[in-house]
């Protein structure tokens, strides 16, 4: 018996594909990328079956290529996401996003008493754990917190 294949998401001719996003983080990635007001074609899918993540999401953005500092933000909420650059329906580049060692100006401190939440200063964090849950340590108050307490700036 012939196995049926189903095309779930259509191809784009040029742009960016972000795949392997944890299903719960898809809308957060949409906000990080600022796609709410983007006028080109955007395909957003979530709750697809995944061997790695159980449920994953995918975002395809036609005619848009993102700067590295935006991609770093994606890595904070979707550390296993893959980023694919498409030109003329061909894959030009495919990478796994990486959480940088230092996070500067991307996240707010979870400590409400931290000076960074009361003064006009750029937040700075050291990544202290990338495996078994992302952990960041604030440069100013030295509090360590996990991904569940992270608030993207």
Estimated radius of gyration: 17 Å
Could you say which structural class the secondary elements and strand pairing correspond to? Answer: mainly beta
**Stretches with pLDDT under 50, minimum 5 residues:** none
Spell the H/E element sequence: EHEEHEEEEEEEE
Number of strands: 11
What is the general shape? Answer: elongated
As an assembly, this protein is single chain
In angstroms, what separates the terminal alpha carbons?
A: 52 Å
- Mean pLDDT over the full residue set: 90
Strand coverage percent: 35-45%
Described by strand count, sense and barrel closure, the largest sheet is: 5 strands, antiparallel
Strand line-up across the major sheet? 2-3-1-4-5
Please give the count of helices.
2
Q: Helix content range of the residues, please? A: 10-25%
How would you describe this protein?
The chain has 153 residues and is mainly β. 12% of the residues lie in helices and 39% in strands. The protein is built from two helices and eleven strands. It has helices spanning 26-33, 68-77; strands at residues 14-22, 42-50, 54-62, 82-87, 90-96, 102-104, 107-108, 124-129, 135-138, 144-146, 151-152. The chain has a five-stranded antiparallel beta sheet, with helices on one face. The protein has a four-stranded antiparallel beta sheet with strand order 6-8-9-10, with no helix packed on it. A two-stranded antiparallel sheet has the order 7-11. Helix 1 packs antiparallel against helix 2 (68-77). The longest helix is centred in the middle third of the chain and has 10 residues, at 68-77. It is elongated, with a radius of gyration of 17 Å. The termini are far apart. The mean pLDDT is 90.
């Amino acid at each position: 018996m012939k196995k049926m294949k189903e095309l779930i998401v259509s191809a784009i001719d040029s742009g960016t594909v972000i795949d392997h996003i944890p299903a719960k983080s898809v809308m957060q990635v949409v906000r990080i990328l600022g796609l709410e007001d983007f006028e080109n074609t955007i395909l957003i899918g979530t709750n697809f079956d995944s061997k790695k993540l159980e449920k994953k999401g995918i975002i395809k953005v036609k005619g848009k290529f993102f700067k590295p500092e935006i991609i770093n933000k994606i890595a904070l909420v979707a550390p296993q996401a893959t980023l694919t650059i498409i030109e003329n329906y061909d894959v030009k580049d495919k990478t796994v996003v990486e959480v940088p060692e230092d996070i500067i100006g991307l996240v707010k401190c979870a400590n409400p008493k931290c000076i960074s939440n009361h003064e006009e200063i750029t937040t700075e964090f050291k990544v202290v754990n990338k495996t078994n849950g992302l952990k960041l340590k604030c440069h100013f108050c030295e509090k360590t917190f996990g991904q569940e307490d992270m608030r993207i700036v």
